[in-house]
Amino acid sequence: MSRRSKLPKIFFGLISIVVFGALFWQSKVIMLRLGEPAILTGYTLMASMLLLGFFNFRKKLSMIPIGRASTWLAFHVVLGVFALALFGLHVGVFWPQGLYEQMLAGSFYMVSLSGVVGYALQRSLPRRLTQTGVEIIYERIPAELAEIRERVEALVLECTEKSGSDTVAQHYMGTLNWYFQKPRFRLSHFVGGDAGGYWLRGPGGAARRYINDVEKEYFDQIIALAELKSLVDRHFVCQGVMKKWLFLHIPLAVAVIALAIWHLILVNVYVI
Q1: Alpha carbon 224 to chain centroid, angstroms
Q2: Mean pLDDT, 10 residues at a time, over the chain (272 residues)?
Q3: How far apart are alpha carbons 78 and 52 in whole angstroms?
Q4: Predicted TM-score (pTM) of this structure
Q5: Which of 114, 132, 159, 270 is the Cys-Cys partner for 249 at CB 3.0 to 4.6 Å?
Q6: Cβ(45)–Cβ(86) under 8 Å?
Q7: How far apart are CA 94 and CA 86, in angstroms?
Q8: C-alpha torsion 218→219→224→230, nearest 10
Q9: Residue among 217, 246, 44, 242 at smallest CA distance from 125
Q10: d(C-alpha 255, C-alpha 119), whole Å
Q11: In 3-state terms, what secondary structure has residue 86?
């Protein structure tokens, strides 16, 4: 990470520490005066949660020049940590009493955990995809895999016609066809392993020792396409995980905000 990319996090981090310290101090002052500090921390927490929710709208308005995406991400991460600390200050205990309060706390912890996981994914997976040297839109991946499979099948057919031998065709039908049908070795791609490469150098490429020179030319092209498919598979797995993570994090965030708003209404109606 470059020094310039760290500056927004440092800046927002310092501000959040100062604001949290001020809130902590003011809460103690209010308690000494026999007041209710939960009002101050609750409204501040509600405002923080709404600001966190605006991050999703910022991503949908990426065409509008309202700041760098990296700056907004830094703001979102720091504000999320601030909200988690403020939640602890507001509640006073890790697990509150009361069914509704427990639902709110459980939802808040789940969205916080999913945020930590998502941040880790956003830090590691894009870098790994960049190393593949392949750029592809997620929605285009099924068509790209189908095109690779068609090119391989055309090579198999041409090899059989030119060489007069069906060794490559038999190996394709018995072994390689399984590999080209859909993305394989998903767990390995997700954790950054090379199970696909090992398979291609093992069972996938085993037929090379039994074929003639003409067949080897075609077989090498097939293996090259298989290696390309492995890179596309990695994009399919990693991009898919990042997209599916949003389907978990965003609904959880919406649920927390909805529960918090209802909590705020109940407090204002029955307590204040």
Answers
A1: 29
A2: 65 91 93 87 92 74 63 87 94 88 93 93 90 92 96 96 92 95 95 93 90 93 96 96 90 92 83 55
A3: 10
A4: 0.82
A5: 114
A6: yes
A7: 12
A8: 140
A9: 242
A10: 20
A11: helix
